[in-house]
UniProtKB/TrEMBL annotation, chain A:
Protein name listed in UniProt: ABC-2 type transport system ATP-binding protein
SMART domains in UniProt: AAA
Entry keyword annotation includes Transport: yes
All copies of domain ABC transporter, residue ranges: 22-255
Pfam families to which the protein is assigned, alphabetical: ABC_tran (PF00005)
Automatic annotation (TrEMBL), chain B:
Transmembrane segments: 21-40, 60-78, 115-132, 144-170, 182-201, 239-257
Native organism taxonomy: Bacteria, Bacillati, Bacillota, Bacilli, Bacillales
Record keywords, A-Z: Membrane, Transmembrane, Transmembrane helix
Species this protein is from: Paenibacillus algorifonticola
Record flagged with keyword Transmembrane: yes
Domain of life: Bacteria
Protein known as: ABC-2 type transport system permease protein
Length: 290, 269
C-alpha cells in the first residue's frame, strides 16, 4: 500500500548568536545551517497495518508524515501510496487519506463542531447518505453527541481531539496519519482515542500510521515499529523484536506483560515490570547517540 | 465542482455576519470620514479658479459616499488574520490535505469576508446619504443603464480586489510577515485605485500611470460609472478590461501560489 524509497529532505535554518551586535550583523549577512531532516528513508507498509513511528523530538517524524500526506516536497526519493505520488498528485490523492496533527486544529474556532463537519462534507463531496451514516458511527464510537453544537473554542483539549479525529475520518479514508494524537490528553481520553483507533482498524480495515512519544500508545496499538533518529531510519520491526534485542534480561515476565499492555487495559503493567518499553527506547536512543 | 468553495463562502459569511458591534462602529466611522472627505473637496471646489474640473462636485460627493458604503469591497488593508496565521504558524498543513486547490478556498474565504462586512454596512450608509441636505446628498445615477453597469462593474471590481489581495497572502509565504506587503499594497494600491482622490482630479502624467495599472478598475471605474462620469459606451468596454485584468491576476496568483507551495515549509514542527 505504501512504498517509500530513499526519501531525503533538508531545511535551511537561519542561525545567529544572541545579542544586538549579531542581530545587526545578520541584517547584512544571514547565516544558515542545513538540517538534514530526512536522510534516505525507505520502508513499505501493507494494507491494514497499524505502524508506530517513534523517535526523539526533531528526529523527522512529522516531516515524514507531511511528506507522505503530500504537504512537503522531498529533495529526493520516491514514494508511492495507493499508486499516487503524494506531492505530485496531491489533490486527487488526499481524498483517500485522513490526517490528524495533534498540535494543530482543523476545526473552525468560532463555530459549532457540526458546522466544521458539514464544511468538510462539502469539501470532500461526501454523498449525504454516506455522510449521515459515517457521522452517526463516529458520534457513537467517539461519544460526540453532546459536543456537536458547541463552538470549538469552548471544548476541552480531550473533547476537541475526539472531534479532530472524527473530522479526519468523515470521508472514510483508507489510510490515516496520526501525528501525536494523544499529546496532552488525560488518561481517560487517551484510552478512548486508542480504543477508537483499534476499532476502525479492525472493523473498517483502515491502515494507521501513528507518531507518538507515549510508548503506551505503541504498546496498545502498534504491532510494528519504525524508529527514526537524526533523519535516519534505525529500526523497523515488531515491538517484540525490539524487546528481545534490548530487554532480554527478563524474557518470560516481559512477554506476559506485553500481553497485558497490548490489551490496553492495565496501564500499570510496565511500571512494576523489569524493563519497560520506555526504558528500551531510551536505551536505543543512547546506543545511537541521539 | 464549485461546491466546496461555495461551502467555505457560506460558512465564512455566516461567521462574518456575527460581528454586529464592529458593523455599527464601522458605519459611524465611515459617515465621519465621508463628511470630512466631502468638506475637503467642497473647499477645493469653492476656491478653484482654473478651468472647470473633469468631475462636478455632486459627482465627487456620490463618489465619496459610494466609497464609504462599499469600503469593504474596495480597500486593500482589509485582512484575514486567520490566513496569515495559517501560513506563519504552519496550520496550512491542514489546508494542504484537502482535495481542493488552496487558491480557490482562500479566494472564497476572502470574498466572503468582504461580502459579510459590506452587507452589514452599505445599506444604512446609502439610505441616509440619499436623504442628506445638499451639497452632501448622494444623487441617483443618471439612468437605469448606468445603474446596471455600476452593479456589474462593482461586482467584477470585488472579484478583482480579492485577486489582488491574494497576492499579498502569497507573498507572506516568502516574507513570513504580513506587515510589509500589506503596507506596500495598501498605500500604493489604494492611491492608484483612486481611494484618496478620484482619478480625473489627478494630474495628466499621473493619470497615465494609474490607467496602466489594474487598481483603478476596482474603485474609480465603478463609481464613475454610477455618476455617469464614464459614459455607458465606455463603461461597457471597461467591463471587458476588468474581466481581462481579472483573468490575468488570477492566472498570476495561481502560478505564484503553486510555486510557493512547492517550497512551503510548515512552521513549528
Amino acid at each position: 500500500m505504501i512504498e517509500v524509497n530513499g526519501i531525503s529532505k533538508s531545511f535551511l535554518v537561519s542561525k545567529r548568536p544572541p545579542g544586538l551586535a549579531h542581530a545587526v550583523k545578520s541584517l547584512f549577512r544571514r547565516e544558515y545551517t542545513v538540517v538534514e531532516a530526512l536522510q534516505n528513508i525507505s520502508f513499505t507498509i501493507g494494507s491494514g497495518e497499524i505502524v508506530g513511528y517513534i523517535g526523539p523530538n526533531g528526529a523527522g517524524k512529522s516531516t515524514t508524515i507531511k511528506t507522505m500526506s503530500g504537504i512537503l516536497v522531498p529533495d529526493s526519493g520516491t514514494c508511492s501510496i495507493m499508486g499516487y505520488t503524494p506531492w505530485k498528485d496531491r489533490v486527487s490523492y488526499v481524498k483517500n487519506i485522513g490526517v490528524v496533527f495533534g498540535q494543530r486544529s482543523q476545526l473552525w474556532w468560532d463555530v459549532p463542531v457540526l458546522d466544521s463537519f458539514e464544511l468538510l462534507r462539502d469539501i470532500y463531496r461526501i454523498p449525504p447518505l454516506e455522510y449521515r451514516s459515517t457521522l452517526a458511527l463516529l458520534v457513537e464510537t467517539l461519544d460526540l453527541q453532546a459536543l456537536l453544537h458547541t463552538p470549538v473554542r469552548q471544548l476541552s483539549l480531550g473533547q476537541r481531539m475526539r472531534c479532530e479525529i472524527a473530522a479526519s475520518l468523515l470521508h472514510s479514508p483508507s489510510l490515516l496519519f496520526l501525528d501525536e494524537p494523544t499529546i496532552g490528553l488525560d488518561a481517560v481520553s487517551k484510552i478512548a482515542v486508542r480504543q477508537f483507533i483499534k476499532t476502525i482498524n479492525e472493523e473498517k480495515g483502515v491502515t494507521v500510521i501513528l507518531t507518538t512519544h507515549d510508548m503506551n500508545d505503541i504498546e496498545a496499538l502498534a504491532s510494528r515499529l519504525l524508529l527514526i533518529g537524526k533523519g535516519k531510519l534505525l529500526y523497523d520491526g515488531t515491538v517484540q523484536g525490539l524487546r528481545s534485542r534490548y530487554g532480554s534480561k527478563s524474557g518470560a515476565a516481559e512477554a506476559s506483560q506485553l500481553q497485558q499492555a497490548s490489551a490496553s487495559t492495565s496501564e500499570q503493567g510496565h511500571s512494576t515490570g523489569s524493563l519497560s518499553i520506555e526504558d528500551i527506547v531510551v536505551q536505543m536512543y543512547k546506543e545511537y547517540a541521539l | 465542482m464549485i461546491k466546496p468553495y461555495y461551502a467555505v463562502l457560506r460558512l465564512r459569511l455566516s461567521n462574518g455576519l456575527q460581528y454586529r458591534a464592529a458593523a455599527y462602529a464601522g458605519i459611524g466611522t465611515q459617515f465621519f470620514f465621508g463628511f470630512i472627505f466631502i468638506m475637503v473637496f467642497e473647499a477645493f471646489y469653492a476656491q478653484t479658479s482654473a478651468a472647470a474640473p473633469q468631475m462636478s462636485l455632486s459627482e465627487v460627493v456620490a463618489y465619496c459616499w459610494l466609497k464609504q458604503a462599499f469600503l469593504a469591497f474596495i480597500v486593500l488593508w482589509l485582512r484575514d488574520n486567520e490566513l496569515f496565521q495559517l501560513i506563519t504558524s504552519g496550520n496550512i498543513a491542514y489546508e494542504l490535505c484537502r482535495p481542493s486547490g488552496i487558491y480557490g478556498l482562500w479566494y472564497a474565504k476572502l470574498l466572503a469576508q468582504r461580502l459579510s462586512s459590506a452587507l452589514l454596512r452599505c445599506l444604512p450608509i446609502l439610505l441616509v446619504s440619499f436623504f442628506l441636505p445638499q451639497p452632501y446628498r448622494l444623487e441617483l445615477p443618471p439612468d437605469f443603464a448606468a445603474f446596471l453597469l455600476f452593479v456589474c462593474s462593482l461586482i467584477i471590481g470585488l472579484f478583482l480586489i480579492v485577486a489582488i489581495s491574494m497576492l499579498i497572502y502569497i507573498s507572506v509565504f516568502i516574507t513570513m510577515s504580513p506587515a510589509g506587503s500589506l503596507l506596500m499594497f495598501s498605500v500604493f494600491g489604494e492611491f492608484f485605485a483612486g481611494m484618496i482622490i478620484p482619478v480625473p482630479l489627478m494630474p495628466d502624467w499621473m493619470q497615465r500611470i494609474v490607467y496602466a495599472l489594474p487598481f483603478h478598475w476596482t474603485v474609480d471605474f465603478p463609481f464613475r460609472v454610477y455618476t455617469g462620469n464614464i459614459s455607458t459606451l465606455d463603461a461597457r468596454a471597461g467591463l471587458l478590461f476588468q474581466l481581462l485584468w481579472l483573468a490575468a491576476l488570477i492566472f498570476i496568483g495561481k502560478i505564484a501560489m503553486n510555486k510557493a507551495l512547492r517550497r512551503v515549509v510548515v512552521q513549528g514542527g
